[in-house]
Every structure is written in structure tokens, then in C-alpha cells.
Amino acid sequence: MSSFDDLRQSVLDANLALPRAGLVTLTWGNASAIDRELGVFAIKPSGVPYEQLSAADIVVLDMTGEVVEGHRNPSTDTPTHLALYQAFDSIGGVVHTHSTWATVWAQAQHEIPLFGTTHADLCARPIPLTRALTEAEIEDDYELHTGTVLIEAISASDPGQVPCALVRGHGPFVWGHSVGKAIEHAITLEEVAHTAYLTAMLAADAPSLDAAIRRKHHERKHGPHAYYGQSQGR
Q1: CB atoms within 10 A of CB 203
Q2: Would you say residue 232 lies in a domain?
Q3: How confident is the model at residue 3 (pLDDT cuts 50, 70, 90)?
Q4: CA 48 to CA 186: how far, in whole Å?
Q5: Which CATH number fits the domain that encloses residue 113?
């Protein structure tokens, strides 16, 4: 038995959750998870259909991006995932999709405005949009520099407070303290993107959510005195 079996299984489960949630088409998208104690992360192989995936297909890499276990080529987005893991110790899982509504905003090259409480539950600010990559960045190391612009887009905030961003013209990247939480954030982001689009169509001048309500909704889930859900002893 490999010491990476649990990690590979968790990454397989996360990737299989993407088509079930309607977040991916064909082989688009990927999920990864990191084991910082072992100094490795695991990710979906490139171009393998989800219905054909097994735990044996999941690729394990070290923190330099070298494959340490697996017979497949890792996702082409691996350098982007690795850049996020290297930049933020609190990130335990990363998800990338081309989910329709979030990608619409990315292709429109527009951050997602904070219109309502569902958005505030996810993130206390508009969903950020990355800057455009330069031609030199694209030619030099496209996937690595995609990570660079994502890091720049959230650098003023804790990644726990801003758990996602839109890569300009491309699509969403989402993260969490675990890959399961990253999947949850990806599902929520897609709903936020959908309802924000419909809100903007109904009222082009729709205001941002009131700041006090925004703070309340975000902090009751993520603040130091969060009380949403169940806790031990309650």
C-alpha cells in the first residue's frame, strides 16, 4: 500500500464530484489536494475523462512539481495549483472549472459584484478578476503566471476570506482548507455567478449589498464568533 493512497482517494472523490455538480464538461477542470506533512500534492491527470478515472490515475507530485507517484501526465494546470499552495499555507485544496456562469463573468472580464447574502456567505467582497497576462508571461510559463495573477488578485486578503477568483478570459479557480471545502466553494460560486448575472440583467444599476448585512452574513459563517451550523457541545 502506498503512503499516498488516502490523498489520491480524496482527490479522486473531489474530481468525481465536479461532473455530479454540473461544474465541468468533457475533461475540462481539475481538483487537487496537498499533504503538507508529506510535502506532496495530488491532482487529476491531463485529459482523462472523469468516468474513466480511478485512484491509480491520480498523480502525486512534490513541491517542486516533480512527479513522485503515478503513470499519467498531471493536469496542465498543475503549475497554477502549485503556485497557490506555495503562496498560501492555509490552502489545502484547489479546484478549477469552466463552469458556465462563473466563466461568463471571466469572459466578460468583470468581477462579480456583491449583490446578495449568498455571495456574502462565500466572500465579503466582489469576486476578484485577475489582470491580463502579458505576452511575455504567456510565452514564458503560461500556467505558472496564471498562478501569479491569481495570487496578486487576492494578495490584499486572506485566502480564507476570498476563496476564489476569476482568471480573465478563462474561468474560476477556487480553494479551501481542504479539497472538499474547495468543491463546496466552487458550487457556491457558480450559483453566485448565476444570480449576479440575472440581477444585473433585471437592474443594471442594482446596488451592492448593504455593508452591515454583508459583514453579518460573512462573519456568522467565517468570523471569530461564527455560529452558523453545528458545533460540539451545542
Answers
A1: 10
A2: no
A3: confident
A4: 21
A5: 3.40.225.10
Of 35, 121, 142, 227, the catalytic one is 121
pLDDT category at 206 given cuts 50, 70, 90 is: very high
Q: Is the residue at 136 inside a domain?
A: yes
In the chain, the number of structural domains is 1
Judge whether 231 lies within some domain: no
Cell of 85: 499552495
pLDDT at residue 232, as a whole number? 53
Quote the domain boundaries for residue 79.
Answer: 5-222
In whole angstroms, what is the distance from residue 80 CA to residue 96 CA?
10
Residue among 154, 163, 172 at smallest CA distance from 107: 172
Note if 5 is an active site residue.
no
Task: Please pick, among 89, 141, 227, 228, the residue that the annotation labels catalytic.
Answer: 228
Is residue 228 among the annotated active site residues?
yes
Pull the grid cell for residue 90: 492555509
| Residue 177: φ, ψ to 5° | -70, -15
This prediction has a pTM of 0.92
